[in-house]
Structures are given as C-alpha cells and as structure tokens.
Amino acid sequence: MLASNKVLSKPINNILLAEDDIDDQNIFQLALQEVDSKIDIQFVSNGKELLQLLSTKNPDMLFLDLEMPYKNGLECLVEIRSNKNFEDLPVIVFSSTTKPSNVQTAYEMGANLFFIKPAVYSEYLSSIKALLKLDWNNPSEVKEQYCINGRYTAFN
C-alpha cells in the first residue's frame, strides 16, 4: 500500500466569532452546528473583548466583523497581525460589505479570506462547509488563491 504525501489539513476544533449583531451570531452558530457540531464556537461582541480574549486564548480560526464598537475589525486585525503568536491564525473577515475597496483593504491588512455574509441560510451552510474544507495548514496560501491580477476577491 502506498503512503499518501498529502498532509491533512489541520483540524478546526474551535472558532472565535467577533460579531456585535446577535442575529448574525445566532445564524452563524446554527449553520456551523449543522455543518460540524463538534466545533466549539465562542463569541465576542466588540474589538476590545476580542483583543482581551486573544491574550488568553488561541482559537483555530477567527471570523472578524468589520463594524464593531470600541475597535473595528481592521483595527483589531492590525493588532492581531503585529503579534507573532497569531501570524498563522486564519482570520476570515466576515462582513456584509461588498465594496471591492473594503475587500482589498482587509486582505492588505492581514485577512486570509474575506467572507461576505450570505443573505440566505442555505448559502451560510454551503459557504461554511466549503470554507472549512479549505487547507488551513498555510493560511497565506489560502489568501493567495483569492488574488487575481493583484486584486483580491471575496470568498463565495
């Protein structure tokens, strides 16, 4: 029997969602539980809480809303990426904005993926399922898959 040279993607056991909208938190949690009920999820509702929690916890993946109180997502992203402990943390910006300039800025500031909040629950399910299947062993490689001719695109 031949051994496979493919390295399995690192498991995602816990996700941190930084999101101030309780409805978005609930929908995300429902979809995630339906996709993989073994993944633990924790929520923070503002940038200050996020940075405080990250001082004691290192999640497997972070979903980061752009519009949050106290510190917005981009301000948090800058702080996260300046910390060596989080250089390999997959950070997925999770936003309702579709403006290409916002997508580009998020990637330039260190996001590994830009995920536009789906309008329909079934899209949440399929998107989260596809997102979790990406190979997160090297988050920067995931990021590069969404760069076309020097411009970044959103995950869909």
Set down the secondary structure blueprint.
Blueprint: E1 14-18, H1 22-35, E2 40-44, H2 47-54, E3 61-64, H3 73-81, E4 91-95, H4 100-108, E5 113-116, H5 121-133, H6 139-144, E6 147-148, E7 151-152
Parallel strand pairs: 1-2, 1-3, 3-4, 4-5
Antiparallel strand pairs: 6-7
What does this structure look like?
A five-stranded parallel sheet has the order 2-1-3-4-5. It contains six helices and seven strands. Mean pLDDT is 85; it is low at 1-7. α1 (22-35) packs across α5 (121-133) and α2 (47-54) runs parallel beside α3 (73-81). It has one domain: Response regulator (Rossmann fold), CATH 3.40.50. It has helices at residues 22-35, 47-54, 73-81, 100-108, 121-133, 139-144; strands at residues 14-18, 40-44, 61-64, 91-95, 113-116, 147-148, 151-152. It is 38% helix and 17% strand. It is α/β, with parallel strands linked by helices. β4 (91-95), α4 and β5 form a beta-alpha-beta unit.
Whole-number mean pLDDT? 85
* Shape designation: globular
In CATH terms, what is the fold-level topology?
Answer: Rossmann fold
CATH class: Alpha Beta
* Overall domain count: 1
Q: How helix-rich are the residues, as a percent range?
A: 25-40%
End-to-end separation: 38 Å
Low-pLDDT residue spans? 1-7
Strand arrangement within the widest β-sheet reads 2-1-3-4-5
Structural class: alpha/beta
CATH architecture: 3-Layer(aba) Sandwich
Radius of gyration: 15 Å
| CATH superfamily membership | Response regulator
Strand content: 15-25%
Enumerate how many helices there are, as a single number.
Answer: 6
Q: Topology as H/E string?
A: EHEHEHEHEHHEE
